[in-house]
């Protein structure tokens, strides 16, 4: 299992448990083994960082953790349920219910207004529109987006606001885990630390588990727990 | 689905209003396709109705006898040109048992003169029951009575075209005109009824008693058309056979030679014309429907482009929980709303074209609800059918790859 000390999670509740996860990409005739025998446990409320050199397999690991991709071997227990063999639609449902993503570049849908972007996870959860609007407004308030900007389009608000809208979208459906793959990759240091303070706030106030991929030590410093990935292996910090 | 479909439709509309020009151009094929289906069907239905009117106007049981030989497909040469039919033929035909005695019409083309004006028109000798049989009343003056017919009175009833040509705005009733150098007193003017289904001006006519026609106008013995009615509908074929036999005998045609005349049941001709109008409509509508299919391919093309352009959006939607069906539905709704929108514009355009045709051409157009409903269903169907492949492609994207797409 893992060799790490739980240092800020509570109650010892395991949210993520990877057992011998392997990932092989089939590219033509060559099979590339991107992950090799990954074992990892993450507890509820942890602020967790994954570091490593480019090409080491961080994104591959993150995509599996985020249920966007399935491992080619091993078992992945998410809140006790083995999700490594589930089909696409069930994985979509799990992403919708449990996981909030903050992407590099935020990935807001440009054709949708700020509030529509935030409503999206609720829409796919089948929550009635009226209720969804109320919840989306709450989430936007939490990340300090002025009410008069709710109907703006992403290109009509500042970069800082866009990143907060992306956070609002990640937390609107009360996701228990937030995953962010190099969210600060395109940001200057001021905006990076602003984003990280938000993660910290959500982590502390709402006890949301946060998993962060980064190669910047300054960013990783916000996390309480770290692993380093090298050539598809987890190596001790 | 758990959430209201209205939201999807609303969001589809938002997508199109963002890119109005492209949406319009995409649906142009559907617009043109639906408009041409609506317009052609309305023309076809108008034509069928005109033919139906013509059948009613001709009266039932009508037979038409023309000089000339008929070729196989019914195409004849020298229509009305051959001098083979005489007035005594007409008289003899009227005496046949299956033919109504008072129903013969003889038509000739004559110059009609009033003072300095003259006008070439069709002069018809007929019986006093003409206005009733033809359902064609006199609006000014009166029609000749049986008495005038049996005494071969020199009286004439004229159509409005002849009245206008000879008298302009003057009241023609009471004036004397010359037909074939014989003076006739105008006693009435027929109601204007316009063109028939074959494009002839039916008001270009002078009607006189058939006896007068035979005895006084018949300086020539050749006639180029004889119209008679069979005694009843059932007698039409019998009358046709009797007329054929009689004329063959009178014209001394040996058994192996073809007729030098032509007997046609006008109701049949009109019905044939009616069914060819229908076939024509179906053919035209089929051609128009092909352009609908081409319109559908246009939609498929744009939807494919749209799926590619929005790969990242699809990835984001999948990441936040969209299932395959959600994406499939989103794009299917987009393509059907798009083509429904085109269909509605096309219906508007088609109605406009059909109205315009009825205004600027003599063609009659009739719009019914059926082609409109069918067009709407068809255009949504085109949207669903041609939108399916792009939507399917979108729904099968891999979320990781879709998210990585720039
Ligand atoms: N879809 C794929 N097909 C083939 N090889 C891949 C694919 N995704 C990633 N890889 C390879 O797997 C390795 C790990 O990639 P990744 O997890 O993206 O690394 P990191 O995020 O740490 O930079 C790289 O060598 C990369 O080229
Ligand atoms: Mg990466």
Largest interface: A-B, 29 and 27 residues
How large is the share of residues in beta strands of chain A?
Answer: 25-35%
Main sheet overview of chain B: 6 strands, mixed, barrel
Across the major sheet of chain B, the strand order is 2-3-8-5-7-6
Bound molecules: adenosine-5'-diphosphate, magnesium ion
Number of continuous helical runs of chain A: 7
User: Which value, in Å, is the CA radius of gyration of chain A?
Assistant: 18 Å
Summing up helix and strand content along with how strands pair, one would put the structural category of chain B as alpha+beta
**Mean pLDDT level of chain A:** 90
Q: Which spans of chain A of ≥5 residues are poorly predicted at pLDDT below 50?
A: 1-7
- Between the first and last Cα atoms of chain B, what is the distance in angstroms? 31 Å
**CATH-derived architecture of chain A:** 3-Layer(aba) Sandwich
Structural class of chain A: alpha/beta
Classify the fold: give the CATH topology of chain A.
Rossmann fold
State the CATH class of chain A: Alpha Beta
- Overall, the morphology of chain A is globular
Key traits:
heterodimer; A: 237 residues; alpha/beta; four-stranded antiparallel beta sheet; disordered N terminus; B: 406 residues; alpha+beta; 2 domains; six-stranded mixed beta barrel; 10 strands; 55% helix; 15% strand; binds adenosine-5'-diphosphate; binds magnesium ion
Word description of this protein:
The complex is a heterodimer of chains A (237) and B (406). With 237 residues, chain A is α/β, with parallel strands linked by helices. Chain A has one domain (46-69, 87-236): Rossmann fold (3-Layer(aba) Sandwich), CATH 3.40.50.300. Chain A is 33% helix and 27% strand. Chain A contains seven helices and ten strands. Chain A has helices at 58-65, 88-98, 114-124, 129-142, 159-171, 189-206, 217-220, and strands spanning 14-27, 30-43, 47-52, 73-78, 81-82, 99-102, 177-181, 209-213, 225-230, 233-235. In chain A, the strands form two sheets. Chain A has a six-stranded mixed β-sheet with strand order 6-7-8-3-9-10, with helices on both faces. Chain A is globular. Residues 1-7 of chain A have low confidence and may be disordered. Chain B is an alpha+beta fold and 406 residues long. Chain B has two domains: 4-54 and 272-404, no CATH class; 103-228, no CATH class. In chain B, strands 2-3-8-5-7-6 form a six-stranded mixed β-barrel. In chain B, strand 6 and strand 7 form a beta hairpin. In chain B, helix 1 crosses helix 11. Chain B starts with a helix and ends with a helix. Residues 70-80 of chain B have low confidence and may be disordered. The interface between A and B is medium-sized, with 29 and 27 residues. Magnesium ion binds at residues 58-59 of chain A.
């Amino acid at each position: 299992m893992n060799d790490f000390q739980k240092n800020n999670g509570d109650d010892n509740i395991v949210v993520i448990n990877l057992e011998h996860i392997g990932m092989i990409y089939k590219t033509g005739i060559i099979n590339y083994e991107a992950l090799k025998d990954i074992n990892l446990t993450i507890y509820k409320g942890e602020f967790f960082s994954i570091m490593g050199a480019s090409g080491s397999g961080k994104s591959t690991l993150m995509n599996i953790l985020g249920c966007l991709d399935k491992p080619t071997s091993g078992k992945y227990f998410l809140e006790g349920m083995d999700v490594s063999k589930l089909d696409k639609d069930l994985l979509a449902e799990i992403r919708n219910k449990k996981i909030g993503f903050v992407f590099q570049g935020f990935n807001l849908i440009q054709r949708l207004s700020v509030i529509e972007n935030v409503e999206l996870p609720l829409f796919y959860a089948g929550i009635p529109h009226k209720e969804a609007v109320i919840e989306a407004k709450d989430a936007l308030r939490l990340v300090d987006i002025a009410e008069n900007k709710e109907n703006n389009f992403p290109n009509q608000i500042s970069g800082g606001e866009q990143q907060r809208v992306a956070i609002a979208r990640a937390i609107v459906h009360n996701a228990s885990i937030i995953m962010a793959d190099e969210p600060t990759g395109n940001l200057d240091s001021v905006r990076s630390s602003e984003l990280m303070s938000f993660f910290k706030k959500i982590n502390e106030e709402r006890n949301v588990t946060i998993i962060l991929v980064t190669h910047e030590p300054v960013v990783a410093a916000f996390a309480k727990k770290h692993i380093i990935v090298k050539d598809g292996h987890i190596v001790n910090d | 689905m758990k959430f209201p479909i209205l939201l999807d439709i609303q969001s589809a509309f938002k997508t199109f209003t963002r890119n109005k020009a492209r949406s319009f151009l995409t649906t142009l094929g559907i617009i043109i396709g639906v408009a041409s289906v609506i317009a052609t069907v309305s023309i076809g239905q108008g034509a069928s109705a005109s033919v139906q009117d013509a059948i009613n106007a001709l009266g039932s049981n009508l037979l038409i006898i023309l000089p000339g030989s008929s070729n196989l497909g019914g195409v004849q040469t020298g229509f009305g040109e051959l001098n083979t039919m005489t007035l005594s033929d007409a008289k003899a035909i009227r005496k046949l048992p299956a033919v109504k005695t008072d129903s013969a019409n003889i038509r000739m083309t004559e110059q009609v003169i009033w003072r300095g004006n003259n006008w070439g028109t069709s002069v018809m000798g007929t019986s006093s029951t003409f206005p009733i049989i033809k359902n064609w009343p006199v609006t000014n003056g009166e029609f000749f009575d049986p008495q005038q017919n049996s005494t071969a009175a020199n009286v004439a009833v004229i159509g409005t075209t002849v009245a206008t040509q000879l008298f302009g705005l003057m009241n023609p009733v009471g004036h004397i005109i010359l037909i074939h150098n014989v003076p006739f007193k105008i006693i009435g003017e027929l109601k204007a009824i316009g063109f028939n289904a074959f494009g002839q001006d039916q008001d270009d006519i002078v009607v006189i008693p058939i006896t007068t026609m035979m005895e006084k106008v018949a300086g020539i013995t050749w006639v180029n058309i004889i119209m008679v009615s069979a005694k009843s509908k059932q007698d039409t074929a019998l009358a046709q056979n009797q007329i054929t036999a009689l004329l063959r005998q009178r014209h001394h045609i040996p058994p192996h030679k073809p007729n030098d005349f032509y007997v046609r049941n006008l109701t049949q001709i009109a019905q044939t014309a009616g069914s060819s109008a229908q076939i024509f409509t179906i053919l035209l509508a089929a051609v128009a429907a092909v352009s609908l299919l081409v319109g559908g391919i246009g939609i498929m093309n744009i939807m494919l482009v749209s799926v590619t352009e929005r790969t990242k959006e699809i990835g984001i939607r999948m990441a936040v929980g969209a299932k395959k069906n959600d994406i499939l539905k989103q794009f299917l709704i987009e393509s059907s709303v798009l083509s429904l929108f085109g269909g509605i514009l096309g219906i508007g355009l088609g109605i406009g074209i059909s109205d315009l045709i009825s205004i600027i051409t003599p063609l009659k157009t009739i719009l019914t609800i059926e082609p409109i409903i069918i067009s709407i269903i068809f255009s949504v169907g085109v949207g669903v059918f041609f939108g399916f492949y792009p939507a399917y492609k979108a729904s099968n994207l891999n979320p990781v790859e879709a998210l990585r797409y720039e």
